[in-house]
Amino acid sequence: MQENESIMNPFLQTCLSVFFLAVMPNAPMFGQAPSCMGMTNTITQPSPLCLTTTPATIVQPAATSVHTGPMTYDWEMSTSSATGGFASLGVNAEDLPVPTSPGTYYFRRIASLSGIPAPPHTPPPFRPCESNVVEVVIVSPPSISAKSPVSAEVCSGAGTSFSITVSAGGGVNSQWQYDDGTGFTDIAFGSSTYNGANANTLTILNAAGLGNRDFRCTVTSTLSADCQSQSTVFSLHERPLPTVTPLAKTVCESVTARGGAAIVDLNTFNNALTVSDPANLFVSWFTSSPRASISDPANFHFTGTTVLTANVTNTTTFCAADATVRLTTKPFPTATAIIQSPANLCSGEYFDVALQGAAQYNWTASAPTGIQGAGPGQAPVIHQALTNRGTQHKAVTYTIVPKQDGCMGPPIDVTATVQPEVKKFAVTGGGEICLGHAGLTIGLVNSQSNIAYELERDGQSTGITLTSPGGPFVYPNPIASNGTFTIHATTGGRCETDMDGSAIVIVRTVPQGTGIISGDEIICQGSTHTYEASGWTDATDYQWILPTPLRSVREEEQVAEIIAEQIETDGAVQLQAVGVNTCGAGMTAAKIISIHANPIVNISQPQIVIAGQPFDLTYTTTTSLAQWQWNFGDGGTSTGSSPEHTYDKPGPYVVSLNAFDENNCPGSNTLNIAVTSAISSNNIKNVITANGDSQNGYLIVENLEKFPDNEVVLLSRWGNEVFRKKGYANDWDARVDGYFLPAGNYVCIVRLTETNNVFSRVITVVKD
Question: β-strand 483-491 against 495-498: which pairing, if any?
Fold first, then answer.
């Protein structure tokens, strides 16, 4: 064997070399590069990898060979050096396996052709090919922690500054982001709103308009751009600043301050400084230049023009904003009162004052008990009616405050003195006396002391005056002359009032003159007539004397309504009247009156009334009539004496007649009329069963009973009369002399005397 090997070695060394040169002319020769002869096995260097995004393998280019045959791989790894310490991973794949722990690793790949003899007999061109060494760096995500709270609330405004800080270890790059509701977006570097967009600390320079917004920081390893960590989300809530409005106010000079200074309560402007939620705001006041706190804003003194700063703070969010307030003084007005009324007013008179010096005036009135009509007002004049219900004169004081351009001036007072009201009491006394009587007293039901009460007659003074100490009184001298007496009261020399009512004194005599009675001379029985008595002088009442059969319905002084009772015959009576008063009765007046009985009217009953046929209405009466008023009960009327009328339909009707005789005395009567339908040949039944049964066994003329004055005749077909009867009542059974008529046709003739009407019809007599 050894011999053979020694013999074969030169052959193999020579022949195989020639073989490979012939087959693969580009293959390296033995002795050149002990590895990778005829093969390529190059792997690529990966960038640093992030542990959280590292794939299981990294794709590598496949090894190639000039020799045919399957390729196998073996990966080796070293954790210490690129030149040594490699150990097989037992991974037969062309792609690079990736470690699962952070660190620096060195890899190489061994590529071999399958089916090649094992060493030492493996020819050099078929020996395993060792790749280049690559460094693989596995990076952990950066460690990050927040140093700020998870949320914060800041006041809105360009001057608001707030910082958020996170801490990250290792070589990292920071990027802040915000979420505006559509997702997180990187904050641009150099933003005017933010500072530190690429640092650990983000500073918000302007919170105005941010609203509620979420922030986070993304930290990226400097070794791997894919290796990132994100901080927890920080929520920022923007609290709105109070909405403030600059104010410019003109403030009136104070009437109590010196040198034209104004005193103002700055707190009264608080609500005007803001337009939002004034109930939850607190205002602090400062001078503007220099800014200094105002210790007593309720009593701020200033002169001319001053500029202040109002700091408005929301007591819920504690956000504040400044408002500028400019205050300017203006002078107060003064007023002058010109009294245009008398110094002493009568109760009920107007107190008139004209006011000058200002644009507006407010006044109040201070009045003692008993004064009515005094009250506050706003006008350049005072015009009020003042009433003094007391017993003494009283003063009313008006305090007037002038106002100009919103400024109040110093008040002034004016006073009105009001005399006591002269009360009105009812006048008593008066009445009627007969001529020669001593007279009647006149007075008051009550009076006031120290007031003169003068008696007047028909509006003129009688010269009789009485000053009463108070209480009811009468004048001492009785009055015995006609007239209307009133009492006029006077006080204070100019205040006067008429008392209520009057006392009328009438001096009467017995009624004189000749009386007359006016009214109808002819009256009808049961009718009412009006009579009037007159002709007496000074009569206050009237007495009526009524003979039988007259009766009074109503008597009112001169007028009497009289009705005549029922009488049997016409006749004349005497009606009397007399005028009277408290002094006696005058002469009696008389009037002769003729009384007529009413006519008795009876409507005559017509014999028969048929619908559609005219008929005449007549009547009987006890005297001749001059007028007629008929009512036929179907809406028809007539004024004729014996009218003709036609009813359209049968039925019951009520006819009435109101008639008047030549003296216009009325009589009336009513009559019930039954209107029947007309009958004709169709009312004759055309069949008679002459056999004694009840079915069609009689000669029947329908509705004949309404015409009792009738006549019915039956003729045979040869014209012979077989039956005749007046006042027929539908009661003949077709027997003549006890025998039924023979069967056949007959003619039935009906004559109605009431309507002078005759009609006929052929009828048939049957036996079955």
Answer: antiparallel
Contact in structure between 236 and 215 (CB atoms under 8 Å): yes
Of 311, 515, 499, 504, nearest to 422 by C-alpha is 499
The Cα–Cα gap between 38 and 213 comes to 65
**Residue 501 pLDDT greater than 50, yes or no:** yes
Query: Side chain identity at 462, as an amino acid letter?
Result: T
CA distances from 421 to 69, 393, 394, 469, 604 (A): 146, 9, 11, 16, 85
Closest CA to 272 of 262, 288, 286, 283: 283
Q: How far apart are alpha carbons 440 and 432 in whole angstroms?
A: 8
Q: Closest by alpha carbon to 390, among 343, 351, 349, 422?
A: 422
The span from the first CA to the last CA of the chain, in angstroms, equals: 166
Residue 35 in contact with residue 129, Cβ under 8 Å?
Answer: yes
Tell me how far apart the alpha carbons of residues 491 and 450 are, in angstroms, rounded to a whole number.
8
The share of the chain scoring above pLDDT 90, in percent, equals: 38
Q: How far apart are CA 459 and CA 512, in angstroms?
A: 30
- 320-368 pLDDT, tens digit each: 888 899 988 888 888 999 999 987 888 889 999 999 989 899 999 999 9
The DSSP result for 547-566, as a single string, is -TTEEEEEEETTEEEEEE--
Q: Is 595 left (phi over 0), alpha (psi -120 to 50) or beta?
A: beta
Domains observed in the chain: 42-114+127-139 (2.60.40.10), 143-237 (2.60.40.10), 242-330 (2.60.40.10), 336-418 (2.60.40), 427-508 (2.60.40.10), 516-596 (2.60.40.10), 601-676 (2.60.40.10), 681-766 (2.60.40)
Question: Do 174 and 167 meet the contact criterion of CB atoms below 8 Å apart?
Answer: no
Question: HEC profile for 406-453?
Answer: CEECCCEEEEEEECCCCCCCEEEECEEEECCCCCECEEECCCCCCEEE
Helices and strands (H and E) in the chain: how many: 2, 72
- Count of C-beta atoms within a 10 Å radius of residue 297: 20
Work out the widest C-alpha separation in the chain, in whole angstroms: 208
pLDDT at 11 over 70: no
Query: Does 437 score more than 70 pLDDT?
Result: yes
Dist CA 146 CA 201 (whole Å): 10
Q: How far apart are CA 654 and CA 342, in angstroms?
A: 86
